[in-house]
């Protein structure tokens, strides 16, 4: 079974990035360089995930991971989502987008994706938005798969360890994209990744993969020094040649107009860090905690902004290190970060 302490030639994990960035080519490039690439199963059909696993296997024999979203709680306050829908309506009309009706439940096909991971015996499966049920952990172990739980504070790390996972991905407040937090209403633990790693190191006896704001060799070195077994980089790969990041999102990482990032629920109903743009300025104050309902409500608006190459309407997910994102082949990014970390 994959062991984070023994089997990484380079202790750098390529974060799963749903919504386009994590392509099979990106995953294969990170893994074949000696790190561990991750496919993102979130938002995709089971068939699409199968196709992507096959595509990575056609590119490399190296181990890689697959990341799944754990379904959230049922919709608690439908009226609040309807009110948010009404707020989005004028923008939808300007963009010629028909907003979908509010759905009741999450249909991300979690069980079928677990079945697929077991069938394909993927080397590593990580979970976010919730802890994997014990039965799922046992089934994956029986298939020879190492299991990672993504968490965002020390209590969650302890709870994950009790589920019998093999490693913990610990996400600090500096991380780009969705927060793993088990309670999407909770205020984020304000500690930056390195401090969180130090605290978790003392609390759990499992390999720790640290995620959040790690974008330079100095960041990699300092995070490993704090006690992480490996680092997980997302934003630092967003502008990699092999990434499927939308052109407007890539450009925004280097655009002087985007000077800040915030954690917002405006795009998806779950807290996530992105660059501050017009959509966040207009809607963050009214956002409600309701995933995937809000995600589905805004999907047409985001697609229209993407088609128009308009960064002001896209979810520009990015961590605090976004200005250091390099435009280069993923192999070069991973190798350079590791070389610079060793030089430090
Ligand atoms: C565009 C984007 C999409 C992401 N999608 C996922 C995902 O599907 N699953 C997941 O566990 N984490 C996801 N994340 C979070 C990453 O796993 C990781 O925690 C984060 O990128 C680390 O912070 P950094 O972006 O500052 O490197 C995403 C992050 C970004 C930037």
TrEMBL record:
Give the keywords, sorted: Detoxification, Flavoprotein, FMN, Monooxygenase, Nucleotide-binding, Oxidoreductase
User: So which domain of life are we looking at?
Assistant: Bacteria
Q: Which InterPro entries match?
A: Aldolase_TIM, Dihydroorotate_DH_CS, NMO
For whether the record's keyword set contains Oxidoreductase, the answer is: yes
Which Pfam families does the entry mention?
NMO
Task: Report the sequence similarity comment from the record.
Answer: Belongs to the nitronate monooxygenase family. NMO class I subfamily.
Q: What is the annotated role of this protein in its UniProt record?
A: Nitronate monooxygenase that uses molecular oxygen to catalyze the oxidative denitrification of alkyl nitronates. Acts on propionate 3-nitronate (P3N), the presumed physiological substrate. Probably functions in the detoxification of P3N, a metabolic poison produced by plants and fungi as a defense mechanism.
What name has this protein been given in UniProt? Probable nitronate monooxygenase
Sorted alphabetically, which CDD domains does this protein's record hold?
NPD_like
The record lists the organism as Rhodococcus koreensis
């Amino acid at each position: 079974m994959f062991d984070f302490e023994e089997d990484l030639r380079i202790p750098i994990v390529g974060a799963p990035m749903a919504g386009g960035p994590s392509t099979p080519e990106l995953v294969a490039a990170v893994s074949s360089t000696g790190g561990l690439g991750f496919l993102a199963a979130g938002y995709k059909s089971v068939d699409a995930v199968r196709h992507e696993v096959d595509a990575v296997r056609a590119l490399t024999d190296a181990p890689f991971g697959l990341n799944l979203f754990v379904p959230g709680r049922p919709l608690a306050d439908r009226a609040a989502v309807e009110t948010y829908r009404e707020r989005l309506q004028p923008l939808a009309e300007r963009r010629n987008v028909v907003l979908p009706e509010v759905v009741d439940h999450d249909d991300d096909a979690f069980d079928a994706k677990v079945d697929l991971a077991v069938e394909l015996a993927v080397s590593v499966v990580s979970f976010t938005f919730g802890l994997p049920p014990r039965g799922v952990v046992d089934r994956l172990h029986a298939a020879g798969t190492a299991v990672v739980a993504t968490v965002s504070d020390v209590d969650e790390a302890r709870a994950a360890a009790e589920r019998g996972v093999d490693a913990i991905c610990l996400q600090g407040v500096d991380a780009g994209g969705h927060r793993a937090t088990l309670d999407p209403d909770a205020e984020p633990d304000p500690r930056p990744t390195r401090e969180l790693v130090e605290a978790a190191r003392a609390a759990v006896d499992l390999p720790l993969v640290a995620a959040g704001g790690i974008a330079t060799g100095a960041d990699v070195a300092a995070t490993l020094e704090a006690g992480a077994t490996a680092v997980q980089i997302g934003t630092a790969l967003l502008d990699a040649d092999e990434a499927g990041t939308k052109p407007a999102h890539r450009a925004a990482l280097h655009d002087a107009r985007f000077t800040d990032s915030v954690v917002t629920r405006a795009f998806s109903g779950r807290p996530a860090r992105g660059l501050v743009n017009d959509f966040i300025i207009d809607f963050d104050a009214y956002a409600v905690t309701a995933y995937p309902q809000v995600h589905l409500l805004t999907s047409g608006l985001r697609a229209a902004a993407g088609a128009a190459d308009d960064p002001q309407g896209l979810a520009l997910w990015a961590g605090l290190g976004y200005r250091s994102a390099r435009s280069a082949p993923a192999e070069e990014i991973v190798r350079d970060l590791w070389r610079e970390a060793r030089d430090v």
